[in-house]
Amino acid sequence: MLKRSVAIWVFSGLCSVCAAGASAPPAWVDTPLARLEALALLATLNAEILSSRSATLTLEQWCREHALAEPAVILAHRTDTVNQAPSATTRTDLKVSAQEELHYRRVELKCGERVLSVAENWYVPGRLTAEMNRQLETTQTPFGKVVQPLEPHRETIAVRMLWQPLPVGWERAPATAAPAPGSSEAPGKPLDLPSALFEHRAILYSARGEPIAEVDEVYQRDLLAFPQPQLAR
Question: Which residues pair with 215 in a beta bridge?
Answer without folding.
Answer: 121, 202
